[in-house]
Amino acid sequence: MKRKFIVLPLDGFASAEALMDYLRSLLDELAGDELLDYLAYIKLNDGVHNLDAGGPSIVEQIIAELKKRDLPVEIFLDLKIGDVSATVTNVLKKYQNLPIGILTVSSLCSVETLIKLRLLMPDTKLAMLSALTDISREEFQIRFGMTPGMQILKDWQNISALYHSQAGKYENWQHPLAFDLVVCSPEELEFLNKTMPAWVGTIVPGIRDEWMRKANEHQKRFTGVRQALNEEATFVVMGAQFVKGNPDLNISPQESRRLTLQEVKLSLRFESGDPLELLKSYEGYYCSKIDVDGIVGPLVAYAGTYPSEDGPKNFVGYEYFNFAKAEPDPAARSYFANLIAEELSVQNLTGNVVLGAPMGGILLAGTLGEELGVSTIFAEKRVTALADPDNGKKEQSVPIIERHSLKAGDRVIIVEDVVNNFSTTQKLHDIITAREAKLVAIVCAFNRSGKNDWNGVPVVAALFIKAKQFHQNDPAVATLMAGGEIVWHPKDEWPVLKKAMED
Questions:
Q1: Which sequence spans correspond to the domains of the chain?
Q2: How large is the C-alpha radius of gyration of the chain?
């Protein structure tokens, strides 16, 4: 089931009739649109103040329309409640028997008001509003003497403390939280996620990706949807980006939703829990088509070699794990490093030095070293023989450690991007033992070997997967080899492989 996080505001309508006509038309337009799967709430602000229908009536109409279409979308009342207790109670009594999912409440309200709201609407999530997003960071600092993030944190802490000290005075009080959520701009997300409890959710307006930004932007603190989700926003508020597009840049609503969905998927790819699917999302996986006649090709050459009459030759195969497509993204490296670190902990494997194998293990080693809190070094490559494709040979090299050093007694964890034949591992192991250090584990993003250990040394991977490889004269690949259907440098010729998959 997909996580729902989009909040769609319905504002700016002259009448309830116009609002409902627009909503029906919009839902018809969105039928079958994948982005609709992520819609969590319809948000009402000025839409509840129309002359032809009161707020409760409008809410009832929207709920009926959603039920008719079997859409599991809730109502978000963005009333920014900020009055005295009696007035607030009188207003909210009109919504008491309606299924309101979220209600925004100003931090200026008394604690007594919050408690009465909890008693009146026990199933509704309360969201604290403390810093409006159309106030710049500079203006906020001048007016309030602190950053918006500090203001939100201070208000939440003080209100929560008072709430807990007073709530016990009321009968039938059961709700332990003053607020379930806070409203904040993207600029405050990182700070609040570090300083507030994990159970406090965030509602983030100010979602403006590049194609939506205008010179006269009313929001002062904004960001794109991918960044907001990457920084763990619980809900994001999208109006124009979801339904209007940007006519100034000739971006239609349909195109805006397509671009938005693309950004959403780029963020949510980490939630699948499948390292291979994550690599695919970076377009870092190649697999040749295989039909009834066998492998269609093209083949790819692997770094591992086998002996032949003409000297060492490279193994070949029909799939390739190009970790280089993912590793530039710190979020991807962190994802793989976390999986590896967890497994090291489970197996009680510890080291004091992380050694990145050239070249694919270097960046991942840096991230893993930070995750484990240990020293990080890396090996370099020294070329020993140039590539000779006519004779089935890739460039040959040996790893060296010159920039950094290893000490006697060091416990070393080798980091690679992909392991299969352990040829690089063997060479690094020889260096480690020559310097009287000890190899305690081999870790990688993808283990293609299907082995859990190498010469008694544990192999830890984000994903274990057995990938077939062949000698170049193997009948399964010999015809393709003879026809030149092989890519000797997969990373350098990745567009060729990508096109082959698309075709």
A1: 6-271, 285-502
A2: 29
In the three-class reduction of DSSP (H, G, I as helix; E, B as strand; rest coil), residue 418 is classed as strand
- CATH level 3 topology of 285-502: Rossmann fold (3.40.50)
Residue 51 has a pLDDT of 64
**Tell me: the pLDDT tens digits for 216-240?**
555 555 788 988 888 889 999 998 8
CB 73 within 8 A of CB 242: no
Distance separating alpha carbons of residues 181 and 120, to the nearest angstrom: 18
The CATH T-level fold of domain 6-271 is: TIM Barrel (3.20.20)
Separation of first and last alpha carbons in the chain: 31
- The CA distances from residue 305 to 43, 316, 472, in Å, are 61, 9, 11
Find the helix packing angle between 111-120 and 148-166, rounded to 10°.
70
pLDDT tens-digit map of 78-123: 999 988 999 999 999 999 899 999 999 999 999 989 988 998 999 9
Burial 166-192 (b: 16+ CB within 10 A, else e): ebeeeeeeebebbbbbbbbbbbbbebb
From CA 271, how far away is CA 483, in angstroms rounded?
42
Q: Which structure tokens are listed for 479?
A: 């015809």
Place of tokens 């920014």: 80
